[in-house]
Write a structure and sequence with these properties.
By secondary structure, the protein is mostly helical. It has 7 helices and no strands.
Length: 241
């Protein structure tokens, strides 16, 4: 029981105020690395929170839009959906598709064709427009995720750099004093381990969040592609012979 306490007490002491003493005794380079890692961690957490809120709203909005879109009997009945869900990717795609459809019908009227069938080349134009909008929406949803990848990849190496610097400081102190006592080497070792903690604390949440975000983005991409195919299918069914 005593041995367990002797091991855990220094660990808790680090998080109970000792951490500031370690930072205060750290080298300038070590402090800079810790500050950079702390900045990485703050930015990555800001991205995590913002992407979580965005993806949650996107998923619920898309689900509601698809439910009502499937119930609509005609494309004219979906105009209100585009306005209601304009903040979602599918709502933006639907709005772009309806606008392009209106443009096609207006061109037909200008050519004196009336409200005839939509030609195949116009279907292709509509499909390309939908694909373009879907790509733009994916870029919007992906915004910031690259910062998670950067944090996940760079933070462990920055932490390792801080570890090396801390150990180097310890060896320098040994050389300067000619003594390898614990009092001489402890500050440098503590700095090295703290830099490792900062690196892992920044990297681990970023890795988990990056994998989660990629999974959600793949789902949104597939959902957007399926919606475009369904939209084109309904256009063919309703406006072609």
């Amino acid at each position: 029981m005593l041995s367990i306490l002797s091991i855990t007490t220094p660990v808790f002491a680090v998080f109970d105020g000792g951490i500031w003493e370690i930072i205060g005794n750290s080298s300038f380079f070590g402090v800079v690395i810790m500050v950079v890692l702390l900045a990485f961690s703050v930015v990555s957490w800001a991205v995590i929170v913002s992407r979580y809120r965005l993806y949650k709203a996107e998923a619920s909005g898309s689900e509601a839009l698809l439910s009502q879109f499937h119930k609509a009997k005609r494309m004219a009945d979906t105009v209100g959906l585009a306005k209601q869900f304009q903040n979602t990717a599918l709502g933006t795609q639907l709005s772009a598709g309806i606008q392009e459809l209106v443009s096609i019908r207006e061109r037909q009227s200008g050519e004196g064709a009336g409200a005839g069938s939509i030609r195949e080349r116009e279907i292709d134009l509509l499909e390309r427009r939908l694909d373009q909008v879907a790509g733009d929406e994916m870029q919007r949803l992906e915004s910031g995720v690259i910062l998670l990848a950067t944090t996940a990849n760079a933070s462990p190496f920055l932490g390792l750099l801080g570890t090396v610097v801390g150990i180097m400081v310890s060896f320098w102190e040994i050389g300067q004093t000619g003594s390898a006592s614990l009092a001489i080497v402890a500050p440098g070792i503590a700095e090295a381990l703290l830099a490792t903690i900062f690196g892992l604390a920044a990297a681990i949440p970023a890795v988990i969040a990056y994998n989660w975000a990629n999974n959600r983005l793949r789902m949104f991409a597939e959902q957007g592609a399926n919606f475009n195919s369904e939209f084109i299918g309904r256009i063919r069914l309703e406006f072609t012979e």
